[in-house]
Structure formats: C-alpha cells, structure tokens
C-alpha cells in the first residue's frame, strides 16, 4: 500500500508519520507539505502514487482537493485532526498518529 502523509510545511507532523510507517515492510510511505515553503511540496505525482492520503488538518485536505481536483477525485483522503503543536518525533504526536492511522491499515 502506498501511503502519503500531508501537513503544511513537511517539517514536524508528516515526516514523523513517515518515519513511523516507513519501518513496515508492507507499506511504501512518503510525506509532503501544502505550503510553498514546504521542505517537500506535494505534487500531482505524489497524489497519483498514493493509495491513501492522510492529512493532518481539514485545511490540508481542502488544499489538495482545490489544487489537484482531478488527481484527488477517486482518492481516499483521511483527516487526522492533529494540530501543529508538536515537534518531530514528539512522543504524544507519535501516539496520536498511531491511534488515528492504524485502523485504516
């Protein structure tokens, strides 16, 4: 399964999620951001590659749908509802991601 994690700047939340799930043999994982200043900016190629897309907030899903309407049309987009209150690999962030994502996998 190809999994894409999306947040704003691809610095804290989505790279943490990528690091957690990259260890699993049965998944291919990427992360990206929606902002122009993102470390890795989400592209249409990323969206087409993904089987499932997890966004950290509702605004990220909306940006994907607005900027990539064709690519997101038949994609499963899941909002994790994780605010930008955490640093990379924060223990609480890891726990929230696992609780939110695992049921989908």
Automatic annotation (TrEMBL):
Cite the SUPFAM superfamilies for this sequence. Answer: Phosphotyrosine protein phosphatases I
Annotated signal peptide:
none
Source taxon at top rank: Bacteria
Q: Which residues form the Phosphotyrosine protein phosphatase I domain?
A: 1-103
- This one is known as Protein tyrosine phosphatase
Q: Tell me the organism.
A: Flavisolibacter ginsenosidimutans
